[in-house]
Amino acid sequence: MVVVDEDRKTLQVVVANDQLSLAIGRGGQNVRLASELLGWRIDVKSEEKYAKMMEDGFQSLVAIDGINNKIADILYENDIGSAAELAEAVPADIAAIFTDLDLETAEKMVEAAGLAILKSGEEKSVGDSPEAAPGAAEVAASADDSAQPEVETK
Fold first, then answer.
1. 30 membership: H or E segment, kind and range
2. Of 42, 108, 117, 154, which has the fewest beta carbons less than 10 angstroms from its beta carbon?
3. What's the confidence (pLDDT) of residue 119?
4. pLDDT, tens digit, for every residue of 64-81?
5. What is the DSSP string of 59-120?
6. Residue 11: Cβ within 10 Å count
7. CB neighbour list of residue 5: distance below 8 Å, 6 or more residues apart
8. CA torsion angle for 51, 49, 91, 113 (degrees, to 10)?
9. What residue segments make up the domains of the chain, in order of their start?
10. How far, in Å, CA of 98 to CA of 125, rounded?
11. For residue range 93-110, what is the model confidence (pLDDT) as tens digits?
């Protein structure tokens, strides 16, 4: 499988676990040569490592306040595969993915992703509680699984 990101000029190549060393080549020569010929960055991963990476990325999206499985699925299908990618995303691009999401709510989603990353990297001590992003509660309320939001892609 090959995942192409034309904007970043990167290829993510997923190969069978037993074919990884063959795909990379001795000292990385196969990947390095292909990268130079194409002028793109090539990242080769085994199927096992790719599956683990995808699972971790998806779980990081679901861990964000206001992001449920349905929204995470839509983001994932639109190349936002982790909280880190969402935190770096342009809010207007996020709003464009959904038919009923305004720019302000998209900005709150991006903010909440940034806070989730900070929160996951911090050691929590007893009595400490990180402050929520302004409006994160609104995003959480509007994206609650039980509320079944009407979020559709364009």
1. helix 29-38
2. 154
3. 87
4. 988 888 898 889 888 898
5. HHHHTSTT--HHHHHHHHHTT--SHHHHHHS-HHHHHHHBTT--HHHHHHHHHHHHHHHHHH
6. 19
7. 11, 12, 79
8. 90
9. 2-51, 63-147
10. 37
11. 999 999 888 999 999 999
CATH topology of domain 2-51: GMP Synthetase; Chain A, domain 3 (3.30.300)
Judged against a pLDDT cut of 50, whether residue 11 lies above it is answered with: yes
- The strand pair at 2-5 and 41-46 is best described as unpaired
Alpha-carbon gap, residue 141 to 112, rounded angstroms: 13
Phi, psi of 134 (to 5 degrees): -60, 125
Give CA–CA dist 56/108, Å, rounded: 22
21: CB partners within 8 A, 6+ apart: none
Q: Give the 3-state secondary structure of residue 121.
A: helix
For residue 94, the model assigns a pLDDT of: 94
